[in-house]
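RETRY 2/3 - previous attempt timed out on the joint model. Re-submitting the same 1077-residue input unchanged.
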Amino acid sequence: MKRLAAFLALGLLAARPLAAEIPDRPEKLKFEKLVYNPPRPADHRVQLKSGPIAYIVPDRTLPLVSVTVLVRAGAWLDPKGHEGIADFAGYLLVRGGIKSKSADELDERLAFLAAGLTSAVGEESGSVALNLLSKDLPEGLALLREALTEPRFQQDKLDLYRQQALQALQQRNDDSSSIHAREVESLAYGTNFWAARQLTGASIDSITVDDLRAFHKKWFHPANFTVAVSGDVDRDAMVARLEDLFANWPFAGEKPGPIPTDTQMAQPGVYIVNKDVNQGRVSLLLPGIKRDDPDYLAARVMNDVLGGGGFTSRIMNRVRSDEGLAYGASSGFGGGTTFARPFSAGFETKSRTVAYASRIVLDEIQRITGAAVTDEELNTTKRSFVDTFPENFSTKGRVAGLFANDEFTGRFAKDPEFWQKYRDRVEAIDKAEVQRVAKKYLHPDKAVIVVVGQRDEILKGHPDHPVKLEELVDGKVAELPMRDPVTLEPLPDAPPKP
Amino acid sequence: MKRFLLAVAAASSLGLPAFAQQIPVVEKQLPNGFKLLLVERHEEPRIAGGWVAHVGSANERPGITGIAHLFEHMMFKGTPTLGTKDAKRDLELIAQQEVVRDKMRAEESLMRAALRRGDVDDITKPEARTERYKTLEIEFKKLVDEQRSLLVKNEFDRIYTTAGASKMNAFTTEDMTGYFIEVPSNKLELWCWMESERLFHPVFREFYAERDVVFEERRMRTEVPPTGRAEEQFNAMFWDAHPYHWPVIGWPSDIPAITKKQADEFYALFYQPQNITLILVGDFKAADAEDLATRYFGRIPQGEQPAPEVGTLEIASSGEKRYNAEAETNPQLEVLWHTVAAGHRDSYALEVLDQLLNGRTGRLYKGLVLGRQIATDAGAGLQNRKWAGLFAVSAEAKEGKSLDEVEAALYAELDRITKEPIPPEELQKVKNQFAAAEYRRLTSTFGILYRLIHAEGVGGWREINEAGPKIQAVTVEDVQRVAAKYLVKENRAVARFTRKPGTGSTTDDSELAGLSAEQKPIARNISTSVKQEKDPKQLKELLARVEAQAAQGDPKRQQFAKFIRGAVQRRLAELEPKK
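RETRY 2/3 succeeded.
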C-alpha cells in the first residue's frame, strides 16, 4: 500500500506543474482546439399534415416540455385610431378564458400544475407558449388547443386589461426613457408608419370584444403558425400530438398581406424634449438596413468595433472609460426582418455634458468611416463572433426557438445554410470591407439626435468642453413638445423655443 | 444523460410528487482559504465561471458608502501586465496623481465649507470650483493624458472577448460582490489565469474617471427614475441601526469623496482568499478544474486576519413608520416588515406565505384586483438577506380608489391568512410551484452559476439543495404562525406614493372612471381641445351646451357634463387668473 501511495503522489506531481510555470501573459497559454458543429435545422424540421412546420428538439434530461406556436399577426394590422387591438387580442387569447374554463378557472388550474400558458402579439409576430411538466402534457395541449380555437374573450377581463393599460399610459411621461423611446420611434420612422403609432386613451377605449374575436378568427389559423417544441418528448409521439393539436380547425382564417415598410426618417438635426431630470438621455440615429441585406454582417462587425462590443468598442472606451461621462454608451446596427431598423448610438450623461459626449460619438462615427480599423480590433470582433457562436444553441429550447424563428421570418427558406456558413462568412470580412460599409451607411452630418432632459442646463454646455448642442448637426435644434401621456396631444403650455 | 438525482420525498394526495432536485456540487477547499465549487454539465462546450467576495454595502461605514460597488468597477481595470504598455511608469503616474488629488481634496474641503456657509448652493456644479481647484484639475489632466498614452484600453476585457468569452459582468448587493463570465470549454486555464491575476495584484488605474462613471450610474438608477429617490429614502427609513440603511450605490456626497487609498484598504481587508468562493459550472472535468484552480489561485497568500463581520443588529421597532412621497407615478402603496435572515428556520414558511400572496392566483391579486376591484396590480416580495430580511407587499390603486382603501384591503387579506383556514389545495398549489421550479432552475448553465453565487453570498450554497425539502414540509400552521409573528403593525413601515401635481395626464382619469366606454374617447378629445382653447367665450358656450343636455335628466349625461365642467373650469382658471 505504501508503494502505491508513493506512486500516486508522483503521478499527482507530474500532473501539476509548479507555480513558477505560470506565464506572465495570457497569450503564452496553449489551448486545445475546440471543434463545434452546430445542430442542423433539417434534423428537427417536420412538415405537419395539419399545416404548420414544426421544429422538435427532444431533451430527456429534465421532465419539462415547452411548446411555442408562432403566429403571423402583429401590431401592423391595427387600424389607425384603434391601436392596441393586436396587443389586447394577444394577451386576452389566454387570459380572457377559454371554452371549458373561465379565465380564473384556467389560471387556477395552470397554477396548480405549475404550468405556464401565455399569449402575446407584438409588432411583427404573435406567440402562444406552453411550458409544463411532461406528465401534464396531454392536458396542457388540450388547453392550448382551446385557447387557439375557442378563446372566450370575457368582457370583464377586457375591462380589467383596459384599465391596467390606461393606467400604464398615465405613466408614459414619468420616466424620461419612455418619452425618449416614443420620440425615437416617431423620428426614425415618421409618425405615419405603423410601428411609430402609439396607443392612446381613445384607441384603447375603442376596443371591443367583437374586435378581439374578429382578430382571432382572421389570423389564428394553422396556415399562419410555426411551432417550436423542446424538452422531454419523443419525436414521433410529439408529431402525432401536434397533428391532433392542429387538425380540423373550426374556422378558415386569412393570410395577412405583406408588412408595410414605408418608413421616413426625420430631417437631420437635434431634437430635444424638456424634462426635469438631472441626466440627459441621448440617441443618434441614422438610416439602417434589413437583416437580409448582403452588407448586414459586415455592418455588424463594423458596429462591434464602433460601439456594439461593450468595453472593447471605441464609443465605450471614449465616453465611459476615458471621460467618465456615462455608465453605458453603445451603438447598434438594428437590422430588422421586414423593415430596416435604424443605426442608433446612445448614452445617458449629466445635463452639462450632453453636447460634449454627443460630439465624441459623432467624431467616432466619422473616424471609422475615414480610416481602417486596426488588425487587433477586427480580430477581437471576429474571434468574439466566431467563438461565442455555440451560445446560440446553448439549450434545446434555444435551438427549437431559433430554427422556428428562422422558418417564420423566411431566413431558412432564403438562406438554409445560414448557421452552417455563419462562421466562415465572418472570417471572410476584412478591414477594407469594414471601412466600405462604414462609409456607405454612416454619415454623421445626416444624424437625427434625440435628447430628453433639462433643456436649459443641456444648452448651457460645460465650461471645460466648449461644444454646443446647436453645433452638432447643421446648426439645428428643434424643441419637441411634451405630450399628454394619454392623448399624446401636445401639451398647450409647451415652453418657448430656445 | 439523467445526471441529476431524482429523490422522491413524499407523494402528495393531490397528484404531484414533492420532489427534491439536487444540484450536484463538488466542494473543495484550497490551502490558502479559497472555497471552490464545481458543477459538471456537458450539454454545450462552454464554462460559466464566477466568484463571490463576501463583502457588500453592509460592510461599509458612513463616509465611504458605495465603495464596495465602486471597487467592483475597479476590478476590471487590469494588473501590472494587463492594461498598460509601461507598468513602471504607469504606477509612478498613479502615485503622482494621488499627490495632486490630495491637494484637490483640500480644496474640496474648502468647497464644502463654502456650502455650509451658504456661499455656494451646489458643489457638484462646475461653477462652484475654486480657482486653485481648476488649476489642479489641469495638472491632474496632464497626468491622466500621459497615462492614457501608455494604456492598453480595457485590455482585461479584450483578452477575454478575443478568447470567445461572453456575459462578462459583475454585481454588488448589500451582502456580496459577484463576478462572472462564460468561456469556451477549452479556455478554463485562461479563466484561472485572468481571475487569479486580478485577485492577486489588481491595479486601480483610471480610478477617478470610474468614480464619475459610478455617479452617472447613480443618476441613471436612482435619480432619474420617477420613484428612485423616494424608494432610497424609504429604505433608509425602514432600517434604523443596520447598515442596510444606506443604498448600495452610495450616498451622492460619499461617491465623489472616496479615495484610492480607501479602495486599497478595502481590497486588503475583504478580497483575501478566505473571504472568496470560486465557482465553475459547465463542460470540464472536476479533477482537472481543481488542479488548475489550485495551481493558479493557490499562489495568492492567505490574508492575515479574517474579514470583519457585520455585528450591528437592527433594533426592535416600537412603532409603525409612515412615509408620504409625491412623485411622478400613479398612486401606489408599499408596506415593509422586518423578518429574518437567510437560512432562518422561519424563512421557509415565509417563502410559502410570499407565494400564497403572489401572482395572478395569489391572495393579493384576487383580493384587491379581481375581488374588490380597487387596484390594478398587487403582489408580495420576500428578501432573505444575509444579516436580516424583509417582507414586502405593494399595490397600485385603481383610478378613483383611495390608497386608504387599498391599504385596508391589504391588511384584510393578511388577516384572512392568520384567522381563516388555508385550504389544503391552495398550499399544495404553492408547493407544486416550488417543486417545478427545482427543475426549471436546471435548464441553464449560467443560471446555475448565478444561483450558486447568490446562495453562497447570503450564507451558503448548500441551501439551494436543502431549502426544497424544508419548503415542502411547511404546514398551514407554520404559515399562519409566521404571518402572525412578523406582519404586525409595530414592525412595519408604510410608503404611500401619490402623483406629484402637474405631472401625468391633464385629463383627469378619475373623473373619466364614471363614463361609459363610448363616452370616454369623446370626453378625452373634448378635454384636449378645451386645454388648447384660448377664448374663454368659446369655453363658456361649450359648457352651456353640455349643461343643457345634462338637464334632460339622463344620469350618464350628467356624469359626462360633470367631467366637461371640471375641464372647462380648470382651463378658465388658467385663462382668467384671479389677479
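Chain A touches chain B through 94 residues (CB under 8 Å). Closing ticket.
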